[in-house]
Write a structure and sequence with these properties.
The structure is a homodimer. By secondary structure, the first copy, chain A, is α/β, with parallel strands linked by helices. Helices cover about 35% and strands about 25% of the residues of chain A. The first copy, chain A, is built from twelve helices and 14 strands. Chain A has helices spanning about 10-20, 75-80, 100-110, 125-135, 155-160, 175-185, 190-195, 210-220, 235-240, 275-295, 310-315, 320-325; strands at about 1-5, 25-35, 50, 65, 85-90, 115, 140-145, 150, 165-175, 195-205, 230-235, 250-260, 265-275, 300-305. A seven-stranded parallel β-sheet of chain A has the order 3-2-1-4-5-6-14, with helices on both faces. A four-stranded mixed β-sheet of chain A has the order 8-9-10-11. In chain A, strand 12 (about 250-260) and strand 13 form a beta hairpin. The relative contact order of chain A is 0.16. The mean pLDDT of chain A is about 95. At the A-B interface, helix 1, helix 3, helix 4, strand 13 and helix 10 of A face helix 1, helix 3, helix 4, strand 13 and helix 10 of B. Strand 13 of chain A pairs antiparallel with strand 13 of chain B.
Chain lengths: ~325, ~325
């Protein structure tokens, strides 16, 4: 059994917990929180919650620590720090800072002879993996990524900060006609507005605020101004009833050409339709925790990404079974 | 530059040739044929064709030999034999015999300190890779594979063997309603007949034969009897004009559940739409030739499949670039 620790217990931590519970070769040993452990209820029977300041005492009791903090302030320091003691896996997703994060984790993991797998999830993660493979098998072509239909936490938060807004949910939606144009192989140049729309469900304190709030949302720079945005005002009850989930997903498409004169067209498409973003991300983290364990057992150390890891190392199946039944 | 040899020059050999031509880090050194080399015209300027009996003289001139023979009789002997001299890549696709083939290639490649990558293409190959990854990240779920719309060479040949048939083309077509049922997550149990139809375009010597030929096709055991088959009689001109290509493709879908009580649904889908089956397969072989070269340079030897190979080793991009731009 691979002994797993979870570091940080929000939506993602709960998703990882369920994934570990459903993987027959894994066992949850402990959950770590910055809060008072007595106030944190977890889902797994007979597993205890500890304060993060107790983590060092688990140095030899945990094979892989799965980090479930945020990319903005938690993971840049937590992942390198915990790599001094554990094999670690995180879902660091600030694309612009991945290279720096890689180097920080690599340094610590090499020093401790541990493995640190970073930026695991679906984007970065499964989408990156597929982009890399698609590009390798079709070197002449174009990549497209569409996100959604799914809840953007950042955009929902931005709406909540507007005066008079009680709660809000924002869905990022790919535009079907753009998807179809890409699939047709015409290699369209698509502007931000042509790829996605933004669909908002907003609860305000008073109906008289609706016009102002809608205007503020639609004109918000970076978040909404570059998109066709629709704003729907609903009641808090309706929000809770119909917009309670955290679905997400998206599409990675590569259109490429082969032949001596690049006269032949191909389309490769990978898509995800996820009812729960954190549960799926948690499942991917669990699979790569297995890889961290396997690689470290082979004597490897240092930082890894989805690009370094062969399917064999994330698989539950013995290799012989994979050859006989999956190939 | 990775020095490539092509062993066998039919449709797949031509596909590999074009792929090598379009990969900036590869160079075609020689093409080997069992035919008289003088009668084989290839597409790449300034590259010569040799008889297969000359292959030993290229022992130190070729980094990776890409085998383009058939799975029935060529590859089972050719791949192990050539692994004594070269890093090799093949597209062996007889699923039931892959395990045996793996062991034969592994033995020879280990003895010669070379790498042999087997069963590379799209199924087995890209589809297998995706099945393995999907299963790892969603361990609780169901897999579905659909093929087409695409030309089945084996089924086209079977029709051609019927008396009075001049030429024929058979398309395997996935049934849309079955695809939709799978995507909806209801986990349908689908019979052979419910997953695919078979669409035949047939040229006969005389219209009076049509009724008999259609009946013989539709009742042919293994090939057609278990499917809803449509037979269209057309002229040789129409066949040549409208059915000259070798398109193919298909879908791998995994529907899986997460959550402590497996209450959350997800759908992962990978699909290919290929205008040319041999050109795409050739492109995949070229990418894995890069992996054979990279792994052997690291000192590795033995047999490998898509399950053993990390995206990094098939990629054209330096790892730093992948971290910065693909992740």
């Amino acid at each position: 059994m691979i002994k797993i620790g979870i570091y940080g217990y929000g939506n993602l931590g709960r998703g990882v917990e369920a994934a570990v519970y459903n993987n027959p070769d894994m066992e949850l040993v402990a959950v770590f929180t910055r809060r008072n452990p007595d106030n944190v209820k977890i889902q797994t029977p007979n597993v205890k919650v500890y304060n993060t300041n107790e983590v060092e005492t688990f140095k030899d009791k945990i094979d892989v620590m799965i980090l479930c903090g945020g990319s903005a302030t938690d993971l840049p320091t937590q992942t390198p720090a915990l790599a001094k003691m554990f094999n670690v896996v995180d879902s660091f997703d600030t694309h612009a800072k991945i290279y720096e994060h890689y180097q920080n984790v690599d340094k610590e993991a090499k020093a401790s002879n541990k493995i640190g797998v970073i930026s695991v999830g679906w984007d970065p993660g499964m989408f990156s993996l597929n982009r890399a493979i698609m590009n390798s098998v079709l070197p002449c072509g174009n990549d497209y990524t569409f996100w959604g239909r799914g809840v953007s936490q950042g955009h929902s938060d931005a709406i909540r900060r507007i005066e008079g807004v009680i709660d809000a949910r924002q869905y990022t939606c790919p535009i079907d006609s753009a998807l179809e144009a890409v699939r047709s192989g015409v290699n369209p140049e698509l502007s931000t507005r042509q790829k996605h729309t933004r669909e908002c469900y907003v609860v305000v304190e008073d109906p008289s605020m609706e016009e102002r709030v809608a205007k503020e949302i639609k004109e918000m720079p970076n978040y909404f101004a570059d998109y066709d945005t629709t704003v729907n005002f609903i009641s808090l009850e309706e929000l809770k009833k119909n917009h309670n989930g955290i679905p997400h997903g998206g599409f990675v498409i590569r259109t490429g050409k082969t032949g001596m004169n690049l006269e032949t067209n191909h389309v490769i498409e990978y898509s995800l339709k996820l009812e729960s973003n954190p549960e799926f991300t948690g499942s991917v983290l669990a699979a790569y925790a297995r890889a961290a364990y396997n690689l470290n057992k082979k004597g490897e150390s240092g930082c890894r990404t989805v690009f370094d890891i062969a399917p064999r190392d994330i698989s539950l199946l013995p290799y012989d079974e994979m050859l006989k039944h999956t190939l």
